[in-house]
Amino acid sequence: MAFSNLTSKAVLLYDEWIKDADPRLEGWPLMSSPFPTTFIIGTYVYFVTSLGPKLMENKKPFELRQIMTFYNFSVVALSLYMTYEFLMSGWATGYSFRCDIVDYSRSPTALRMVRTCWLYFFSKFIELLDTIFFVLRKKNNQVTFLHVFHHSIMPWTWWFGVKFAAGGLGTFHALLNCIVHVVMYTYYGICSLGPAYHKYLWWKKYMTTIQLVQFIMITVHIGQIYIMDDCPYQYPIFMFIIWLYGSMFLVLFLHFWYHAYTKGQRLPKMARNGISKDQ
User: Which residues are listed as membrane-spanning (predicted)?
Assistant: First the structure.
């Protein structure tokens, strides 16, 4: 009886909370509730940390070069498209880069932003393949906590972002992330073509710099919310989450930079094992 009452209260609270969701997303795939996303993420975590390595334990690594080439360059194309859509739905067509609130209207531009936010959210499920490829190729040392955490937390937090605040200043980090992914997945795509193409990767040393600049820009941009007196952004909690996330990875990359370039040592194991590909 007590469990039944608790469940009923939880359902009532959920029903009350979900009333504030953006009605424009009614009926969109994966947006009915956070449970499908949670289930997918849970399955992903179980596979890459337990089931997958066990299944591969007595098998030879899969040769996935052609598949990975197609995958990496497909992500490049998708990231280019999302960059363009983020720009055309706000960031290059009217946003101030300061207090940009969510436009909940059904204007063509506002709906374009909603579609772009949903596509960005969905792209995070596609990127789960990064880790699955590690497992199938028996690169289990690259399946670090940080890598799995990053790939898990992004789609889960973005479900709430899309459901309640598809637009405004909370999407700036997504725009930057798409731009960085164009560079990163181009690099990984060329890598997957084989050693003959590695001579074209002279710009590898700039990858860390690009990622570091990304997190500095995210942290500075979102930090404005604390010095603006009257910004009526609808969901300030999202600003804190983005600031926390950006700050955490900024610190990690500064640590990376210090060891790799200031001290001239080998990269920290955490960084070597996939932090640069997590972004």
Answer: 35-56, 68-87, 118-136, 143-162, 174-194, 206-227, 233-258
pLDDT of residue 272: 40
Q: Is the pLDDT of residue 274 over 50?
A: no
Kindly indicate the confidence band of residue 20, based on its pLDDT and cuts at 50, 70 and 90: confident
pLDDT of residue 41: 98
- Is 221 an annotated catalytic residue? no
pTM of the model: 0.88
Sign of CA dihedral 141, 76, 188, 59: positive
Within 13 Å and on the Cβ side, how many CA atoms surround 22?
27
DSSP characters over 130-157: HHHHHHHTT-GGG--HHHHHHHHHHHHH
Question: How many C-beta atoms surround the C-beta of residue 249 within 10 A?
Answer: 22
Residue in 147, 150, 173, 181 annotated catalytic: 150
Neighbours of 42 (CB within 10 A): 12
Q: Tell me, what's the pLDDT at 6?
A: 53
Contacts for 279 with CB less than 8 Å, ≥ 6 apart: 150, 177, 180, 181, 184, 211, 214, 249
Would you say how long the chain is, in residues? 279
User: How many Cβ atoms from other residues are within 10 Å of residue 250's Cβ?
Assistant: 19
Domain ranges for the chain, please list them.
41-278
Instruction: Compute the distance between CA of residue 59 and CA of residue 62 in angstroms, rounded to an integer.
Output: 9
Which phi and psi angles does 115 have, rounded to 5°?
-60, -40
- pLDDT at position 269, please? 42
Q: Which helix (H) or strand (E) holds 43?
A: helix 35-46
**For 267, which DSSP code?**
P
The whole-number average pLDDT for the span 198-219 is: 87
- Mean pLDDT rounded to a whole number for the chain: 88
